[in-house]
Structures are given as structure tokens and as C-alpha cells.
Amino acid sequence: MDILSAVSLPWLQGAQARLRSAHAAQRLPHSLLLLSMPGLGAEQLTNWITALALCESTGARPCGACASCLLLRSDSHPDSHVVRIEEDASQIKVDQVRGLIESLTLKSYRGGYKVGVIEGAELLNANGANAFLKTLEEPTANTVLVMIARPSHRLPATIASRCLRLSLSPPSTQDAIAWLKQRGGEGEHSWNAALGLAGGAPLLALELRTAGVADLDGDMRESLQQLAGGTVDVTLLAERWMKSSPGLRLTWLENWITQRVHAALGASDSGQSAEPVRLPAALLKPKIRALFELLDAARELRRLAVTGMNQQLALEALLLGGRTALGN
């Protein structure tokens, strides 16, 4: 576990300062809900929070060098417990949650805090959410619970309302590019394309730079033009997308739909150009309801992409809905 990498992400400094102050005042929140889109460092921040709670240094925390920090670095700390979706599963199962709860009811092995983390908390099934609710309502002493979820999460209000929410936002484009340039690259224009696809998230943009962003962007523009004009076979298009970076294509599509929604509502730009796809003027103002439905479908498909569902059929259904939305 990399427990200190969050320190190198400047857009997380506000959240870190807030939590460090709470810890110093012995008011570390019992339950945290981190709302974040991919690529903003929610996992890195969670690792840092875990280290903050479990660090045994008498000085600045987390120190990265004490016995607890070393155990965390080796992923062997007995008071740190993480739950995430299992391979080929569509939900976080109730047995996983019960196992986490059982671990948290035990006495701390090192005499300090215990930390429980649920990654992708929106994937909790109903039984798992209900089981976890009791833990939130009756917390044990010196326990920190951290849940990571997307801003569009579907967590029950009974759970979300019992957590301190920390919403992670992308830095400004200028600040993001300045940070990315320090990691190498050819210049501002090169990073703008990656940031546009990443929705402004620097860590995701960093990953995308090597994935042929420019080629994918051009292909997606052309695909949507063909889809809107009814000149492409949806089954063949879905098959081609599934064979070539389906996750990136869904990310691109979600960002593009979001931009269209903002434009239809008269809102300001959200990190991408106002017209990332050159469609006929008649298509520039599709029905807002159809766009929202398409956005929900794209988010749902990306959420379920880690499961064993038939993604080909689901993508075909999404594209059929896209043809309808773009044709309005």
C-alpha cells in the first residue's frame, strides 16, 4: 500500500488539512464518504487516511516509518480492512460486509484505531447495505469507516446521511496541466486532449496519454456522427467498440453527454470544448430528457463493466438509445 502518494496530489491538500486538524483535536470522523470521479486520487487519499489513523509516531502523522506505517506499506496491518468487488461479481456481497463488520468488532491488535474501507460503495447490494447500516448506527470505539463512491452513487440515504461527505473536485485546467507537465509530456495541447477524455481528472489523464487519445477522440466523433445520421449498423459498431478500449470509450461518451446536458441547460463548460462533435445544427439541442436517459445508461454500463454481464448486448442497447437521443 502506498500510504503517502496523496501528499504529491495538490488538489487533495484541502481534504488532508481538514482531516489532520480533526485528528489533532481527537475528532477524527467515525465514518467518511469520499465522493469522487475516477482519476482524482480517492484511493490514494483513503490510504493516507488509513495511515493517519493508524500511525504510531509521536510527531507528524502519517510518518511512513513507524511500525504501523511499515505494516501498511506491506499490506499486512491487522487493523486495516478493505472490501472491494470480487472478480466476476456484479455487487459487493453481504458476506464481505459481514466479514468486515466482524473484524471491526474485535479489539485493536495494536491498541489504537481500526480502519474499514469499502471501495466502490455504490456496488453494495441491499442486504450488504442494511448490514453496514447497523455498524454506522452503533459504531465501536476508535473505529474509522471510509467509503469511496462516485458522485452519481446509489447508496441509500440512510447510509449516506450518517457519513461525513468529502467531495473531491478536479483542479483547474491550468493547475492540472502544470502538474502533468512535471510528469513529462509534449506540452499543453497534448495534455488538453487527455484531460478532456478524463473529465479533468489528472491521474486518469496521465494514464490515458499512452492510450492513443487523439485517435480514439477522432474515432468517437465519427462514430457519433454516423450514429446520429443512421448510417452505421449498431451491432457492428458495438462489436468494434468492445474490441478496442471499451472502458475509455464509455468514459469519453459519458463526458460528451455531460457536456451536451450542460450546453442544453445553458451551463458553463465543464472541462471539454463546447462542441466536441460536429453534428448538424438541428441536432445541437436534443431533448434534455433523452440526454439524461442516455447519460444514466452510460453510467450504468460503466458501473457494470466489471461484472460478468453480456456487455456486447448492453452496449448495443445503449447505442440504440443514443441514436434516439441524437435524433431528437
User: What average pLDDT do the residues reach?
Assistant: 85
Within the largest sheet, what's the order of strands? 2-3-4-1-5
Number of helices: 14
Let me know the number of strands: 5
**CATH homologous superfamily caption of the largest domain:** P-loop containing nucleotide triphosphate hydrolases
Main sheet makeup: 5 strands, parallel
* Shape annotation: globular
CATH topology type of the largest domain: Rossmann fold
> In terms of per-residue confidence, which ranges show pLDDT below 50 for 5 or more consecutive residues?
268-284
State which percent range the strand residues make up.
Answer: 5-15%
Which CATH class of the largest domain applies here?
Alpha Beta
What gyration radius follows from the Cα positions, in whole Å? 22 Å
Structural classification: alpha/beta
Instruction: Quickly give the CATH architecture of the largest domain.
Output: 3-Layer(aba) Sandwich
**Distance separating the two termini:** 49 Å
Helix content: 40-55%
Query: How many distinct domains?
Result: 2
Order of helices and strands: HEHHEHEHEHEHHHHHHHH
In short:
With 328 residues, the chain is of the alpha/beta class. Helix content is 51%, strand content 8%.
